[in-house]
Amino acid sequence: MTATLSIIGAGRVGRALGRRLRELGWKIGAVVTGGEASARKAVRIIGAGQAHAFLTRQVLAAQVILITTADRSQAAVAEELARIGAEELRGKIVLHTSGALSSRVLEPVKKCGAAVGSMHPLQTFSGVGVPPLEGRVFAIEGNAVAVRAARQIARALGAVPVRIEGEKKPLYHAAGAMAAGNVLALMEAATRLMAAAGMKRREAVRALLPLTRQVLENFERLGPRAAWTGPLSRGDYAVVAVHTEAMKDLPPEFTATYEAVNRMAALVLAQDSAAMLAELEKVSSGRKTKGKTTGGQA
What we know:
54% of the residues lie in helices and 13% in strands. It has 298 residues and is α/β, with parallel strands linked by helices. It has 2 domains: 4-164, Rossmann fold, CATH 3.40.50.720; 171-293. An 8-stranded mixed β-sheet has the order 3-2-1-4-5-6-7-8. Strand 4 (64-67), helix 3 and strand 5 (93-96) form a beta-alpha-beta unit. Helix 1 (12-23) packs parallel to helix 2, helix 6 (169-196) packs across helix 7 and helix 10 (252-269) runs antiparallel to helix 11 (273-297). The longest helix has 28 residues, at 169-196. The N and C termini lie far apart (73 Å). The relative contact order is 0.07. The mean pLDDT is 94.
């Protein structure tokens, strides 16, 4: 499928998809962002298109309209597009790239006769260059025509289209956030623990990254339980208690996160989750009791 494409909200995702599709022979039409300078920058990165600082009727010249704005703007964009497009939207394909929202947010343009859907690439976009899309999952949903177009686009990019029910998209997106942003937060927290132990930041990163990579490789190759490592996997609750004691002078979020992640590990990895959760509760209660006693003596 090669066609004409307008992009509304050409930020990191819009620029990357626009550039790759342009390289595949798509004709890029209107490129809309929130300012003239950013629109011109988007056109330069994509390598084609006409820059616009606000939503105009020029977007309607394309067969496919791709909305890549932030989630909070999707509804307003759909309403404005319907207002300026009206009957001209009939027969157009309108896709958005939100991971958490379904195509229902595009109801205003659907009422105008457009085919609507969502197409979310499960990939991080840094804004520096175009990330690899080959083999990446694109979650798609919407009406039949839009889904067909989204599937063809994903396959043309070398990605793997996967159909997701619209109402289930928040769960899908939460999984992605947990596997990406939350893992990054844990890695940064671990790096700061290493720094608190006396390591330089570069040394800490160099020490931790191979460890994490190996666990993830084992997860892929052997499965979750076989890849599980550390004191909790061995039921060594005394070491877990030592860990929490060592964090007492750090911000409380460190200990709270460590305990929460341990409980999650017990839930999803342990053979006897209930028993492990009970033991972890003893460790946590002991820490809190000790803290109150120490505080009272002071």
